[in-house]
Write a structure and sequence with these properties.
alpha/beta; 15-stranded parallel β-sheet; seven-stranded mixed β-sheet; 46 strands; flat
Length: about 725
């Protein structure tokens, strides 16, 4: 009887509570908008426990609401706080806006909350700390979320993961976070935090391994944190990830890091840390005891002194070693080849000297090798050709000598190669030009390379940037270069290339920068260059180019910089396009140029009006002008002969004297007058056609007297059927 009574009493209460959850879900739905219909199942025709993303427990109470990545828009309803049996709430990867409702603090049973990657604003409500069962709190990637980190979060005893990265949170890190004795994951990167010291309590907690999470502790990246790294850091015996990059930490790095046996990721990039002697470099030697270390990155700091030889004794599991942009001297130890798991070795922008170790060729898993901007000398090891997975190689701005190893032809996955600013000699190996994988850039400029540019350059069909400037290359530029149809930047200045500019450049529609300055090129500038639709910068200075500037250059809408200085160009300078702006134009050292905009201060072109008309007239009319001149001279001669003959007859007999002869001075007829006289050489004035040309009738007026003339336009043999100018 008592059991039955209990059941009867329990049923109405459960039903009433269930209706409360349903009402809370309906109110939540009322604040949500979506274009995907993903909440179409949320209607009265089905039980709320079967609605999309809803999970109910045994008493039909909602225990989980998971709507991540559903394209939800709108705001989070305060009614969410009425789901008092909720254990997990996941609204991540949506487009929710508005604030986080304070009512969320009513969810005392909640242990998982994920609101990442939305557009939430305002501050994190302090009463979220009332969720005393919460273990995982993720409110990240809401870049308009502001305010400070609530100090009350330090009162959440069960919290194991706190991820607040990539927001706009300001203020300091609350010391109360040091009370989170179970905290395993802490990520605060990408905010605007600032402090004079990271609370030491954070380093004194025995942070545990967080194998269930993708983000590991401790991450303060990209804030404004200052101060020194506390020595107590080494007490975090289970620490796996330590990332304080892009802050303003100073001082030296604690030396006893070898205690961190679980350490996998150690990043100090972009701070103000330093090391100048063996003692201060002790942290790196200590890290050789961390057998699980995979990432060591200490670039963009103030580390100096000699690179410790112990770097070669780091764990063989290390994949990234980055010490870029410091003031580190010394040599790379030959034992570097022992780091067989290394995939990226970034030592550029330091003061390193000596030879590049041959043992680097043992690092067969290497995908990125950057040694540029140092003082390395000697020859480039041919063993680098063994790194068959390499996709980026930079040894630029050193003192390397010798030739480019032909073994580089084995780097079939290479997409970027920079060997510029060294003392490399010899020719460019054909093997490099056969690396069709190179797509980002091939930079060999500022060396002592000589010989011809291999015609195999046409194999680089995916290449975007090619720089060969400042070498001793000679010969003609091969036409095959036009096969590089995606090329955007081509720098060939400062060599001894000869001959004409290949007209085939017109096929390289994507070209944005072309520099052929300071070579021995001759001939005229191909007008087709002006038809390269994306050409922005063209440098042809210090050559032996002649002829006129192609009109297409003035018509180009993309060209913003043009240097034609110190050639033998002549004729009128265009006034449109790049020629209207002196900032991007240089044409000095061409004595035959005239016209252009007044700011160029060039002499006026002779008969500029006639030149313009000449450019505007058809080809047939251009040929007619010299023919018309010859015909007028012929008419003048015939008239003079008739006059003299009749005068002679008049002196013989007065009886036969003809009527008085009216003397007419035959004028010099301009082309414009002749064009007007024949009505533009219209068909109405055509008198006839012959094998050698056409004859037109015209009326020329002189001193009030109209003279009828016949104008013959001769055909010229140079007007060939297959002339390139006749091709559309």
């Amino acid at each position: 009887m008592m059991l039955l009574l209990s059941i009867l009493l329990l049923s109405p209460m459960t039903t009433t509570a269930g209706h409360s959850d349903e009402r809370a879900l309906v109110d939540f739905r009322a604040k949500i908008t979506t274009n995907y219909g993903v909440l179409a199942s949320w209607n009265s025709s089905t039980s709320y426990c079967s609605w999309e993303g809803v999970t109910c427990g045994r008493r039909r109470r909602v225990v989980a609401l998971d709507l991540h990545s559903h394209g939800l828009m709108g705001t989070i309803s305060p009614a969410i706080g009425n789901l008092t049996f909720l254990r997990a709430l996941n609204l991540s990867f949506n487009s929710l806006h508005g604030g986080i409702p304070p009512n969320i603090g009513s969810l005392r049973r909640l242990w998982y909350l994920d609101l990442r990657d939305n557009s939430l604003v305002g501050a994190i409500p302090s009463n979220i700390s009332r969720c005393t069962s919460l273990k995982i709190l993720v409110i990240a990637d809401n870049q308009k979320l502001q305010g400070s980190i609530p100090a009350e979060i330090g009162n959440m005893p069960m919290l194991t993961a706190l991820e607040l990265y990539n927001n706009s949170i300001t203020g300091t890190i609350p010391p109360s976070l040091g009370n989170l004795s179970r905290l395993a994951v802490l990520s605060l990167k990408g905010n605007h935090l600032h402090t004079t010291l990271v609370p030491s309590a954070l380093y004194q907690q025995p942070l545990r391994t967080a194998t269930a999470f993708t983000v590991q502790p401790v991450i303060f990246e990209s804030n404004r944190l200052t101060g020194t790294i506390p020595m107590s850091l080494t007490n975090l015996s289970s620490l796996q990830t330590f990332d304080i990059s892009s802050n303003e930490f100073t001082g030296v790095v604690p030396s006893a890091l070898g205690k961190l046996q679980y350490l996998q990721w150690f990043t100090l990039d972009a701070n103000l840390l330093h090391a100048n002697n063996e003692q201060e470099w002790g942290f790196l030697t200590s890290l050789t005891n961390c057998s699980r270390l995979q990432v060591l990155s200490i670039g963009w700091n103030r580390f100096a002194g000699k690179l410790p030889s112990s770097v070669a004794n780091l764990s063989t599991s290390i994949q990234l070693l980055r010490i870029r942009r410091n003031n580190i001297a010394g040599v790379i130890p030959s034992g570097i080849g022992n780091l067989i798991g290394l995939q990226q070795l970034i030592l550029g922008e330091n003061l390193l000297t000596g030879a590049i170790p041959v043992s680097i060729g043992k690092l067969t898993q290497m995908i990125k090798l950057y040694l540029g901007l140092n003082n390395f000398s000697g020859t480039i090891p041919s063993s680098i050709g063994n790194l068959s997975d390499l996709f980026a190689l930079g040894i630029n701005s050193n003192n390397m000598e010798g030739s480019i190893p032909p073994s580089f032809g084995n780097l079939k996955k290479l997409i970027a190669l920079d060997l510029s600013s060294n003392h490399l000699r010899g020719s460019i190996p054909n093997e490099i030009m056969n690396l069709t994988s190179i797509s980002a850039y091939l930079v060999l400029s500022d060396n002592l390379l000589e010989g011809l540019l291999p015609f195999e350059v046409g194999n680089l069909i995916n290449l975007e940037q090619l720089a060969l400037s400042g070498n001793q290359l000679s010969g003609k530029i091969p036409d095959t270069i036009s096969n590089c149809i995606v090329l955007e930047i081509l720098l060939m200045d400062g060599n001894s290339f000869q001959g004409n500019i290949p007209p085939a450049f017109k096929n390289m529609k994507g070209l944005a920068v072309l520099n052929l300055t300071s070579n021995k090129l001759n001939g005229s500038i191909p007008g087709e260059l002006g038809s390269i639709t994306n050409l922005e910068e063209l440098y042809l200075a210090h050559n032996n180019l002649s002829g006129e500037i192609p009109e297409l250059f003035g018509n180009s809408t993309s060209l913003i910089r043009l240097d034609l200085s110190f050639n033998n160009l002549q004729g009128e300078v265009p006034k449109e396009g790049v020629f209207k702006n002196l900032t991007g134009l240089s044409i000095v050292g061409n004595k035959g140029l005239c016209g252009g905009i007044p700011q160029l201060h060039l002499q006026r072109c002779p008969n500029s009006a006639a030149r313009k008309n000449k450019k505007a007239m058809p080809m047939a009319l251009r040929i007619a002008v010299p023919a018309v001149g010859a015909i007028l001279v012929l008419f003048s001669g015939l008239a003079l002969a008739v006059f003299l003959c009749k005068r002679s007859q008049a002196t013989t007999t007065k009886e036969q004297q003809p009527p008085p002869f009216i003397e007419i001075d035959l004028p010099m007829v301009s082309y414009n007058e002749l064009l007007k006289a024949t009505d533009g050489f219209s068909e109405a004035n055509l008198l006839g056609k012959g094998r050698y040309g056409s004859v037109y009738r015209g009326n020329v007026e002189n001193q009030g007297i109209v003279v009828v003339v016949a104008v013959k336009i001769l055909k010229k043999k140079v007007e060939m059927e297959h002339s390139p100018w006749n091709k559309g």
